[in-house]
Amino acid sequence: MTTTKVYIVYYSLHGHVEIMAREVQRGANAVEGVEATLWQVPETLSDTILQKMKAPPRANDVAEIRPEQLLEADGFLFGFPSRFGVMASQFKAFFDATHELWASQALAGKPAGVFWSTGFYGGGQELTALTAVTQLAHHGMLFVPLGYTFGSGMFEINEVKGGSAYGAGTFAADGSRQPTELELQQAFYQGKYVAKITKKLKNQPLSS
After folding, report:
1. Are 194 and 168 in contact (CB under 8 A)?
2. DSSP secondary-structure letter at 70?
3. For a FRET experiment, which of 57, 177, 193, 194 has its CA 20 to 30 Å from that of 168?
């Protein structure tokens, strides 16, 4: 049986998306025959700005990805913080650098999910995912939402919880809040869910 490769590509300024990404990876790797790898997109801010923003050091066990490396994967999960209802500019810059892949439609037909972090309820828990779909659509990738397959966790109203039918999410608030157990469970579930779909599509390719 051939290995199905899932790339979890993320940007995380204060660590919230990184925590989610590692849980997404755990979920994807729980699927037999799937190899899930974490990648970071390059930082675009200077060290001076990062220091002023009190950003912690980037994970030294996660390599930076180059656009052409996306070709190696069978499926993707893209994670990013929200900026005014859209993905952070660092991640947008990475997608902007994939123009050669777009020109050849090299990623067309590959499944992809998204996950995210916002500050508060008005920060784009749905809009951030919705606007990210444009990047996938132009590449011809297949957007894989969660729908309400996560079950009862989707209907939780007694505690603060990020995420939506589009994917897993968390709230950072002023930066001090960390992803909750329920949010991490949804991230794990999303990794497993997208990995299963990626594996199925790899083993049953679309007819030409």
Report:
1. no
2. G
3. 57
Which are the contacts of 203, defined by CB distance < 8 A and separation ≥ 6?
4
Backbone angles phi, psi at 76, to 5 degrees: -140, 155
Least Cα distance to 124 among 161, 153, 87 occurs for 87
CA 158 to CA 176: how far, in whole Å? 20
Give the burial class of 52: count Cβ atoms within 10 A of its Cβ; 0-12 exposed, 13-18 middle, 19 or more buried. exposed
Strands 86-87 and 75-83: antiparallel
Name residues whose C-beta falls within 8 Å of residue 155's C-beta, 6 or more positions apart in sequence: none
Q: Per-residue confidence of the chain (208 residues) as pLDDT tens digits?
A: 799 999 999 999 988 999 999 999 999 999 999 999 999 999 988 889 888 888 888 889 999 999 999 999 999 999 999 998 899 999 999 999 999 999 999 999 999 999 999 988 777 889 999 999 999 999 999 999 999 999 999 998 889 899 999 999 999 888 889 999 999 999 999 999 999 999 999 987 666 5
* pLDDT given for residue 54 in this prediction: 83
Calculate the alpha carbon distances from 149 to 174, 181, 185 in Å: 30, 18, 13
Contact 1, 34 (CB under 8 A): no
